[in-house]
Description:
Oligomer: single chain
Mean pLDDT: 97
Helix content: 25-40%
Number of helices: 16
Amino acid sequence: MRVVITGLGVCAPNGVGLTNFTHSLKYGICGISFHQELADLGFGCQIAGKPEITDFDMDNNFTPLERKGLNSSGLVYGFIAGAEAWADAGLKPMGKDKPDWDSGVIFGTGILGTDKFRESIHLIDSKKTRRLGSTSVMQTMASGISAYLGGKLGLGNQITTNSSACATGTEAIILGMERIRSRKAKIMLVGSCSDSGPYIWGGFDAMRILPTQYNSDPLRASRPMSATAAGFVPGSGAGALVLESLDHAMARGATIYAEVLGGAVNSGGQRGNGSMTAPNSEGVQRCIQAALSDANLNKNEIDVINGHLTATSKDADEISNWSKALGRSGKDFPYINTTKSLVGHCLAASGSVEAVASVLQFKEEMVFGNSNCDDLHPEILKRVDVTKIPLKTISYNPNMIAKASFGFGDVNACIIFKAYKPD
């Protein structure tokens, strides 16, 4: 069963909606900015990537009643992205009488509704429990985003949420692909979201893995693959994709962005050089190779990589793992880019936001450029020819794109996208 992508949606720090996001990727527009709230709270890193949600965005996606008491940024981001992807696929919400039994949702998150949790705790401690409102549970349960999307769209197939740290979004796509492959669904809305704010980002600031020297220069702060990378910039947002069986997409005349050719998930078991915060290199290489095997590809067929590449000391290790897994180096190495230089690290949302960016390269016939890495790490230069890491967007017609994500807990996910060509 072949699986294709027929819809995309995004809510990113550098662009809410596909049009804005695509423009930012083409021209290297960064969505990272200084946040006074973080400075007031004494954070070392006072910058972040946060989607700019306007009143128009809210009015266009939520009724006045739905907006009342809505205090979950991740749910807002996820619904905006998911609804856009559904509409982009030419699909509409079901009527009130019955659901679409053949369509479902797998939409992941890390922590949902942190601000709502804080508000709820304050009300409970103040003996004002009755003021919590009827949506506090929906906004704070992990599956709130998938349940909300499923209910708004009227979907009757599997409705669930996955959570695997920074690998969440990429894993969600693989899970959706597998459900369609097994003929248990015809359409799956997949993606992931992440809350924004100090209660999400504080733990990382305490770990001292965020850059602190760029508070006055946020556009230069996220520096994947750079010799002067100083840590990842925290971000938030959501990405969404509509996956569909090829037969179903063709029968309804859907526009097809790309084919989902295969994917794999695994864990390094926090053994060897793996830990809670660092991936086991063998695990990463096995995951990439398993994705290739699932897609029935050889190592030479990948021509573009969208890496995890968070702007930490592990970037050079990631490049080494790609090189070893593919058996390719120098000018033979594929083009590689990272979306994080423009949006920061969107945590649980990162894989889905970056997957949308990856797939857009087929439509635009481009490889999006990399920012802030004109001083490439010397260990990376030993593996990859400088021409394979474009600093600006280049015209190119990709055929096979590999997207990988590696998360806390030493968990890995890799997926292969293929340019769609009608038989």
